[in-house]
Hints:
This protein is of the alpha+beta class. It folds into 2 domains: 80 residues; 94 residues, Arc Repressor Mutant, subunit A, CATH 1.10.10. Helix content is 57%, strand content 13%. Helix 5 crosses helix 6.
Amino acid sequence: xxxxxxxxxxxxxxxxxxxxxxxxxxxxxxxxxxxxxxxxxxxxxxxxxxxxxxxxxxxxxxxxxxxxxxxxxxxxxxxxxxxxxxxxxxxxxxxxxxxxxxxxxxxxxxxxxxxxxxxxxxxxxxxxxxxxxxxxxxxxxxxxxxxxxxxxxxxxxxxxxxxxxxxxxxxxxxxxxxxxxxxxxxxxxxxxxxxxxxxxxxxxxxxx
Length: 208
């Protein structure tokens, strides 16, 4: 792999700094999207030298994949999103269910799904019995890790509640697959011991 990097640098105008910059950017964000500001250059560069980057990520124990239809490149670490707190995990799972439902209903635009922040708050409260997502400050804080990982971004702000719309990226399908979602719901059930959490698991199973 290191010889390939040397050959690439020797035979092209690509510099070691270019490779390191894109690798570090993707490593931090987990996903880069073809049409997102800030991601475009890195997406194009990684895509052009995908074999090299795939080997590098395999070297650190991660599987790098490209999805041209959805327009992103991303990787799954050995323990995907394992650093999330329980409330962040719950929000991720609910967003995954909403994404699935809206996509099936044909509501996606370029594989992006836009929902009101209030819908997420309501579903979070209904499925977990918790109210900690309902305030602007906690809403932003709980969703911050998902924004940093390029799973979502914020849209327009509701003038009454101050809560922003949520734009769900197609990367969520790679970040949380069916098996992983089941494990997350089981963790929620074990930690919360609520009938609402069990109901959420049953609803997720029905959509998959």
